[in-house]
Structure formats: C-alpha cells, structure tokens
C-alpha cells in the first residue's frame, strides 16, 4: 500500500478518491447495482459531443475535405490512446481519479496543475456554449454580414431580442435551475434528451446535403487546403485546438468507470463512444462543408439562417437551430457540475464537501456563472475561444499529462532496471 504524503492526507478528499465519493445505493430502494455498458457509452458520448462539433466544418474548410476528415479520425485514435494510458496507470497506482493518477506521478503540484487545466478548459467550453446559444437566438455578424437569430426572425429587432438580453433570460430561467442540482444524477433525463437533439441536427444536415446532391445543385467541395502564402500555411495550425477540444472527455473517465458493474469493460466503452462520436463528427463536417463550402462560418449553426435551396428550407433552418440550441442548454449543467467541483477543490481544499455547505455552493455557482456570462458577451467568436482553451488547457488534459505520466513511469522502470543490473554486477564483483 502506498503511503501518501502528509500534505495529501490533510486534504478533505484523498487524491485517489473521486471528487464525489461513490454513493452506497440500497438496491431495494432505488434498484441500482452498477451502471450498464450501454449507459456508460451514452454518458461518455454525451461528455464528448458538445460545442466542438459546430466548429469542425470550419476546420475542414481550412484544411480541405480530405485532410480535414483524416485529422478528425486521427483525433479519435490519439484520444483513445491517451485514455488507455490513464486507465493503465490508474490500475497500477490504484487511483480512482484522473487527478489521483497525476498526483501519484507528480505529487500535489502536478495534481493542482491538472485541476487548473480542467477548470480553464471547462470555463472555455461553457463560454463557447453560451456564444452558440446567443448566435442561435440573437444572430451574429460575419464578414460584415448580419446572420439573424431565431428570436429576431420571429419578432423583429427590439431591445429584448439583443444578445445580452436573451442570454440573461437564458441564464436566469434555464441555466440557474439546472446548475442548482447538487447531484449529477438529477440531470440524467436532460442528458438523454440532449444526445437525441444532437442526432437530429446531424440527420437534418446530412439529409439536406443529400437532397441537393441528388438534384445537382451541390458544388464540388475543395479537397485540399488553399495555400496562397505563408500566412495561409500557418493558419492551418489554428485547426489543431479545435480538433483537440472536440474529443476532450478525460476528466469524466473515472467517474463513469467507478459506477460500472464490470469496470473491465471501460476500454471497450471508450472505443465504442469514440467510434460513435467520430462518426457524428465526420458526418457533420462532411455534409456541413458540402452544404456551405467556403462560406462555412466558424459556428456552422449561423449558416442555417437563409434559403437552403430545398422545400421547407425555413422550417428546417429553425428545427436545426432550435434542436442544437436546446442540446447545448441541456449539456451546459453537466460541464458546469465538473467545473464547480474542481474549482472548489482548488480554492477550499480543507473545507467540507461543497454539497454540504449551502453558502459556499451558491457563492461559487454565482461567481462562475457570472464569469461565463461576461465571457460569452465579450469573446468575439467560438473560434477564438476554441483556440485559447484548445491550445492550452484542453491539450494538457487530453495529451500532455497522459504522455508525461507514461514517460515518467517509463523512466522510473528503466532506472529500476539499471539499478538492479548495477547491484547484480556489484554482487558478482564481491
């Protein structure tokens, strides 16, 4: 048994235990004796599919159709590899959290840095969610062109249809009730609905593209990137944070595994979830770029505000934007839940659990919600937010920390081997 440093033992949460300790359920009361395989796949897929899917068509526009789709598939493969590293070293160190794995390798400082990265990543993602919701409801500007939102189309331009007003109403009457739950299990039905709405968006996008291909009105998309100067070449690298952010789910791997009836299924669950999500990503990117070509916006939802060139175009525009707007509203509290726990662990490491302290719970919730609201009103576009979080926190959580843990373990193993060989040589010399 590994003896933890005294600094770790003082924490209210052992670094090897989940931020929320697994609850001991009474099977006779709630009929729960562990999560099923399908339920785990569903939960992990919900974690993965969020706002990243909206920026992927723009990433494919930058890269060209062929390199773009290859990069999306490669992102899934690399994500599976990094998660496999985390799971392998979790078992080796008997850790039940991602921060526990990092803490075992790099101590309290490493665990703290990881939690900071998770907080930054989640705040960035929630800002992106609110930006997209604002685009859907109130519209957005792109290259001097105004793309109307749903509320502006339906009721015209008034003070109460502005971006600030609509996001404020959404925050007070949608987000505030949902983020007030102290148990993530309370959100299971809204999560199920959110996945269904994401599939509706992908299905409609693919359907519209197929109809236009059949009637011959679809233009051939650009297969390769358009490189006209050095600046256009370097611009290709701005797509990397988008691709990284689209697959980030590492902070939810252990909570899902901890609830499984058979934890040995986790590797298969990860593979199934990534296969499902990468299929949705490839379909959305392919058909979205087919539909809009070089006019694809940073937030592809904003493209669904005009004539699609097929019957019932206006109705389909509204259905697409409403379905994905509601999807993001329902995913928001899941990401916020993890954000609040990690931030509380950083700020109040010696306090009682936040769910037991009402004053701290609502104070942290209000401050975080205020920061996200301000960010959503002042960050210019989701592309800017994705680039910041994807190039810093997301890539650290998804790839740098798993690789660093693996590298450290490898170095320690080699040092152990060399030490053993040296001891054997000394014994022979004696």
From TrEMBL:
Membrane topology of this protein: Multi-pass membrane protein
Gene Ontology terms describing biological process: amino acid transport
Keywords in alphabetical order: Amino-acid transport, Membrane, Transmembrane, Transmembrane helix, Transport
Region described as Disordered: spans on this chain: 1-21
InterPro entries: AA_transpt_TM
Chief localisation class: membrane
Chain ranges of the Amino acid transporter transmembrane domain: 36-416
TM regions (residue ranges): 40-60, 66-87, 108-132, 160-179, 191-211, 231-249, 269-292, 322-341, 361-379, 385-407
Subcellular location: Membrane
Cellular component GO terms held in the UniProt record: organelle membrane
Official protein name in the record: Amino acid transporter transmembrane domain-containing protein
Organism: Juglans regia
């Amino acid at each position: 048994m590994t003896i933890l440093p005294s600094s770790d033992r003082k924490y209210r949460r052992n670094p090897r235990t989940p931020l929320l300790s697994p609850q001991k359920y009474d099977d006779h009361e709630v009929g729960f004796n562990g999560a099923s395989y399908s339920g785990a796949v569903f939960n992990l897929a919900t974690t993965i599919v969020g706002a990243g899917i909206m920026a992927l068509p723009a990433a494919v526009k930058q890269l060209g159709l062929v390199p773009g789709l290859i990069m999306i598939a490669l992102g899934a493969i690399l994500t599976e590899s990094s998660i496999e590293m985390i799971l392998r070293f979790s078992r080796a160190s008997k850790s039940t959290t991602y921060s526990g794995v990092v803490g075992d390798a790099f101590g309290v400082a490493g665990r703290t840095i990881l939690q900071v990265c998770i907080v930054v990543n989640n705040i960035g993602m929630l800002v992106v969610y609110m930006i997209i919701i604002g685009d859907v409801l109130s519209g957005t500007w792109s290259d001097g062109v105004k793309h109307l939102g749903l509320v502006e189309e339906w009721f015209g331009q008034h003070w109460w249809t502005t971006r600030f007003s609509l996001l404020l109403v959404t925050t007070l009457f949608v987000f505030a009730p949902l983020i007030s739950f102290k148990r993530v299990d309370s959100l299971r039905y809204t999560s199920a609905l959110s996945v269904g709405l994401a599939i509706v968006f992908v299905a409609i996008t693919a359907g519209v593209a197929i109809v236009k291909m059949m009637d011959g009105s679809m233009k051939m998309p650009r297969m390769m990137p358009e490189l006209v100067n050095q600046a256009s070449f370097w611009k290709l690298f701005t797509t990397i944070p988008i691709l990284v952010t689209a697959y980030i789910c590492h902070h939810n791997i252990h909570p899902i595994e901890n609830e499984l009836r058979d934890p040995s299924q986790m590797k298969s669950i990860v593979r199934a979830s990534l296969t499902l999500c990468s299929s949705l990503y490839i379909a959305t990117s392919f058909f979205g770029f087919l539909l809009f070509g070089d006019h694809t916006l940073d937030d592809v939802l904003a493209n669904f505000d005009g004539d699609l060139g097929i019957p019932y175009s206006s109705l389909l525009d509204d259905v697409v934007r409403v379905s994905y707007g509601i999807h993001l509203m329902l995913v928001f509290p899941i990401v916020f839940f993890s954000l609040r726990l990690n931030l509380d662990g950083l700020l109040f490491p010696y306090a009682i659990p936040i769910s037991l302290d009402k004053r701290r719970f609502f104070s942290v919730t209000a401050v975080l919600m205020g920061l996200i609201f301000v960010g959503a009103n002042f960050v210019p576009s989701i592309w800017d937010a994705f680039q910041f979080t994807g190039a810093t926190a997301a890539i650290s959580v998804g790839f740098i920390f798993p690789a660093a843990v693996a590298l450290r373990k490898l170095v320690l193993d080699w040092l152990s081997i060399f030490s053993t060989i040296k001891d054997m040589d000394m014994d022979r010399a004696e």
